Amino acid sequence: MNQTKNQTKNQTVIVRNERLTAFAGAILLVLIVIELAITANLHALISFHIFIGVLLAGPLMVKMSSVGYRFFRFYTGHPAFLEKGAPNVWLRLLAPFLIVVTLLVFISGFALALVGPLHIGLLLKIHAVSVALWLPLLAVHVYAHVRRVPRLIASDWRSERHIPGRSSRLGVNVLGLILGGIAAVIVIPISAPWRHWTIHSGVPSPLSLGIIASVFAVLIAIPLLRQPNRRGK
């Protein structure tokens, strides 16, 4: 009986973490799609680009914290996460690059918003290159997980599949949005000089390159992600 209780408890820990991560990931995906659509008309929508970019920071921290928790518990030998096993080996190889480039995108973006359009040569190049690298990494990550996200979120609202902590999971994600929104509102007056920034019309080249690279990255990832994965030891 004790073994059954432990198994149930371990399963609950896993599911709670998965549902929190899925909720945060869904919020991020919606905001990122909006941000990419805005970026395609960056000159006219620069203020919205900065606002959504800063807003994204809140849900991003929730997502990274949730995934980081799973990473920490797995590699410190927690029974539940060992039983669940490690993610696909290719996703594990991708993860460090995705984290580093994601941080580079956001840090360079925040720096640009704060310093204004003057004397931004190096910062702008870093941001542009990091975005072009980030999109294919993100595309593979989304492809690997997006099909499970709706089911995980829907399961959290079905009474027959209720797992304790639903209100907390919702609250953490709402808090992430609120904190991101507060930061975005604070940045609005600081980033005002960007409203007078002029660029060449058309879709920015980093976005174009990133989208093209994303298509090839997903095509390459499809057979790799279908390979069987060893369970964690």
Main pleated sheet: none
SS field, number of helical segments: 9
Give the overall silhouette: globular
Q: Report mean pLDDT, rounded to a whole number.
A: 87
Q: What structural category do the secondary elements indicate? A: mainly alpha
Describe this structure in words.
With 233 residues, this protein is an all-alpha fold. The protein has one domain. The protein is 76% helix and 0% strand. The protein has nine helices and no strands. Helix 6 packs parallel to helix 9 (205-225). The chain is globular, with a radius of gyration of 20 Å.
Short description:
The protein is mainly α. 76% of the residues lie in helices and 0% in strands.
Give the helices and strands, then pairings.
Layout: H1 2-39, H2 46-55, H3 57-75, H4 79-84, H5 89-115, H6 121-145, H7 149-155, H8 166-190, H9 205-225
Helix pairs in contact: 1-2, 1-3, 1-7, 1-8, 2-8, 3-8, 5-6, 6-9
Keywords:
0% strand, single chain, 76% helix, 233 residues, mainly alpha
